[in-house]
Amino acid sequence: MTNTKYHGAIPSRCWCGKKIVTYVSKTEENPYRRFFRCEIGLQRKKENHLFKWVDEALLDEIERMSEHQARVAEEIEDLRISMKKTVQEEVMNHKHSLM
Fold first, then answer.
1. How many secondary structure helices (H) and strands (E) does the chain include?
2. pLDDT value, residue 96
3. Within its chain, how far is the Cα of 80 from the centroid?
4. Which residues have CB under 8 Å from 19's CB, separation 6+?
5. 82, 85, 87, 98 from 94: Cα distances, Å
6. In what order do the strands lie in the sheet with 20-24?
């Protein structure tokens, strides 16, 4: 069960305020698979404290960063186009002022 009351793909704190710790699964279903959990959640498994597999968190973070990079690239392109237009307008204004 994943609790989504945190921002970003790699959690740093649980909703209860406790820091997140990385543990290693010892179950047959997920042997040696790493997961994030707060200390309270490890002790009180029936409560809805944060739990997230490390590998899934890393993939989520890569996706989040990829989306962010795409937005930044789009903003850079918009600024480039705007700057080019401004420069062209200034060149035209300068040419007209020389006449």
1. 2, 3
2. 87
3. 26
4. 12, 13, 38, 39
5. 18, 14, 10, 6
6. 20-24, 34-38, 51-53
50 touches 35 (CB < 8 A): no
Q: Which residues are CB-neighbours of 18 under 8 A, at least 6 positions away?
A: 38, 39, 40, 41, 49
Mean pLDDT over each residue of the chain, to the nearest integer:
89
Neighbours of 92 (CB within 10 A): 10
- Report the alpha-carbon angle 6-8-13, nearest 5: 40
Contacts of 42 (CB under 8 A, 6+ apart): 21, 23
- Using one digit for the tens of pLDDT, what is the confidence trace for 35-56? 999 989 888 878 889 999 999 9
- Tell me the pTM: 0.67
Q: How far is CA 88 from CA 54, 91, 92, in A?
A: 51, 5, 6
Point out which residues pair with 21 in neighbouring strands. Answer: 37
